Amino acid sequence: MAYEAFARKYRPKTFDEVIGQEAVVRTLKNAIDMERITHAYIFSGSRGLGKTTISRILTKSLNCQRGISSSPCGECENCIEIDRGSFPDMYEIDAASNRGIDDIRALRDNVSYAPIKGRYKVYIIDEAHMLTREAFNALLKTLEEPPPNNIFILATTELHRIPDTIRSRCQTFTFKPPTVSQIKDYLKRILETEKIEYEEDALYILAEASEGGIRDSASLLDQAVTLGKGHVTVKTVEELLGFIPETEINNFLSKLKEKNIKEMILITERLESEGYDLNVFWKQINDILHKELIDISIKESGKFFSKKDIEDLIYIQNIFLKAYTEAKSFQNPKHIYQLTILKLNYIKNLVSLKEIYEKGIKVSKHTVETPKDEAKVEKKDNELDLQSVILKIGKEAGAVVTAVLKKASIKMEESQIIITVEENLKDTLSEKKDIIEKHFKKPVKIEGKTVKTTKKKSQKRDEAVDKVLELFKGKIITYTEE
User: Fold this and answer.
1) How much is the pTM?
2) Residue 22, number of CB atoms within 10 A of its CB
3) Residue 122: Cβ within 10 Å count
4) Which is deepest, 111, 131, 290, 473, by most CB within 10 Å?
5) pLDDT (tens digit per residue) in 236-291
6) Each residue of 365-384: pLDDT tens digit?
């Protein structure tokens, strides 16, 4: 008999065996017991959380030969066929490869026929978000007027790509990742059933590495058992996952505390040359930094850092987490990580907003400068903002004065302000001189200048004259300017 992988062998077969989906399970069990089964569901969540598994359990509950029940027997012919995936009234459709309108039309034509063997025909459409727009439109009509004894389950990892018209006709269940503790207990149950020796810490590492995926955790456990020749130890699990030796991690963190940029760069170079996965390395570093922050908050100090490092540490973890997110999808993660290390050189240049406000730090395009004394700050604060002053004058003196000042030439000298305007506008400003001086905070001298205007001979003639000349074939004898 062929070997059956843990992920398949220990796939939940009843609602009670499902890991970490308590709300979904309770709602579906109550719906079955109360006979409130609807015709269409959407199961949404990341991979390996049990969307297809629960779809099969629901199918068993409705088609068990012993009757509709939230606890199907699992022993009758229908239950066994559903577990094997060979039940004639259960249709599992992969929307990634059957995504077109013709595939949905074939499904729609099949809906009109009565179930072959069970009470209900169940259509499980996996990766439903991959259906084309035309396919969704074809499915919409069936969901609007569903024939009796037909149930549709749309499983998706990207709920936002399901059209609202479809979602409004379905009950949506969101699957959430189980906790590390729940996954660890699941793995322990498998090993105890298989009578395989294990180390508790090794299961914890596997549970964390699976990132919430039950199926992924079972697959990793399978590999760990094989690598360890029937034993699951911390050493074999770390080797399987490509974990970096603890000595290297401690060395890097020591250099990080010292801000020894050169050595940190060299460590990443060496680890990559030795074949280690830098993404795994960086995740280990981030996990330890997070633990350090928690320990500092609770115990006043961590293994590598103390309370005086907390501001720097918060900034460091922030840029390290960002680097990890970017590097996972980047062709050469080393470049991202080394650039992040280089950024640590500039932690000393970071200035808090509070410091900027209290000390009057001037932030320019290229530098952050701290004034040498308060007197200079005061002087800079008092420098005139010409546009602002003109607007303030205008509020008191009127819009006409504002318009004149905007066109004027304003020269600011140490002892006075010289405003030069056209001669005919001089009196307008002179009448409001006291208001102008109040806002400029200096004596104001208003000067007038004569504007020379040259009268240009108009090249344009009246259109009516042109039309008359054209009509009567005439010509202009004399032309007088006004």
Assistant:
1) 0.63
2) 12
3) 24
4) 131
5) 998 888 888 888 889 999 999 888 999 999 999 999 888 888 988 998 899 899 98
6) 544 454 544 434 443 444 45
Instruction: For domain 180-241, say whether CATH 3.90.1570.10 is its number.
Output: no
Taking the domain 246-349, which CATH number applies? Answer: 1.20.272
User: In Å, what is the CA distance from 409 to each residue of 9, 143, 386, 392?
Assistant: 88, 75, 12, 18
pLDDT at 457: 45
Pairing of strands 121-126, 150-156: parallel
Tell me which fold the domain 6-174 belongs to.
Rossmann fold (3.40.50)
What are the residue ranges of CATH 3.30.70 in the chain? 384-449
Instruction: Outline which parts of the chain fall under CATH 3.40.50.300.
Output: 6-174
Q: Are strands 368-369 and 409-412 parallel, antiparallel or unpaired?
A: unpaired
